[in-house]
Amino acid sequence: MRVFVVAAIVAGACLTTSASRPGRAEDKKDEKNDKELAKLLDDIETAMKAQKYADVIPLAKKVAELDPKNPAAPFAAATAHTQLRQNAEAVKAWTKLLALEPKAVRAYDSRGDAQLKLGNFKEALADFDEYLKTDPKFGPDHWRRGIALYYAGRFKDGVDQFEQHRTVNGEDVENSVWHYLCNARATTPKKARENLIPVTKDARVPMKQVLELFAGKINPKDVIDAAENEKLKGEALKEARFYANLYVALYYESEGDTKKCREHLKEAVEKYEISHYMWDVAAVHLKLLKDKK
């Protein structure tokens, strides 16, 4: 079985090629199409392995032309668009997959991610909730839903989501911070600081200082300095700088300083782009601030 097809099964649906369907191999008039389809899916698998996602999209289009009802085509396209941060196109492709394969419930989760990254927070939550309706056991793990709740203005629900996440990931400064951000808006910054989730084992730079910032023990400059003082290099340094600026920005937002928030978000997004999900969150947050001007 192709790696590509395995990945599709993981996505929540058994996606098969036309060539693998019973009886098609014996149908001589379709033999040429079957071989071409199999070759295209092999090419998609090769491109996926090589992370050549831009090459996947035209291949997926050809699969759809040969076999319009084959859900492998939108799955491949959606995956490629997601990796390329082409979120509007990813939403369309995940939607097409769900139309062809309604049982592909994890596509709701993936489409929710794309919606969140586009700033469509209510739509993201609808997709996340549809996914969790089928797989409720993943509810506590779903920190991304908590972030969507924050941006949708459902702060109390956000507090509850990050409280749940604490039960499966108790040593994560980011969970503590997003819990604080929601709680500060649901109640007050003072109350949120009193209820700040303690974390002692998150060794990522500069998470120790990020937590101390939200605890009121240090100032934003100390967080920025911490990213520089560890003598990191390459991607590790870029990530440290990104996270330092992101969480300093969010701290300033919680304190009502929109100007400083925008400055540090701009720094995080435009100077320190990383492949992590949180860069997409920072990017959509910056866009929201720019749109308000």
Explain the overall architecture.
- The protein has 16 helices and no strands.
- The chain is elongated, with a radius of gyration of 22 Å.
- It has helices at 3-10, 28-49, 53-66, 72-83, 87-100, 106-118, 121-134, 143-151, 155-166, 173-186, 189-194, 207-214, 220-229, 234-254, 258-271, 277-292.
- Helix 13 (220-229) packs antiparallel against helix 14.
- With 293 residues, it is mostly helical.
- It folds into 3 domains: 3-118, Serine Threonine Protein Phosphatase 5, Tetratricopeptide repeat (Alpha Horseshoe); 139-202; 205-293, no CATH class.
- The longest helix has 22 residues, at 28-49.
Query: What is the class of the largest domain in the CATH system?
Result: Mainly Alpha
Mean pLDDT: 92
SS class: mainly alpha
Low-confidence stretches: 1-25
* Beta content: under 5%
Query: Any idea what the CATH architecture of the largest domain is?
Result: Alpha Horseshoe
Output the CATH topology of the largest domain: Serine Threonine Protein Phosphatase 5, Tetratricopeptide repeat
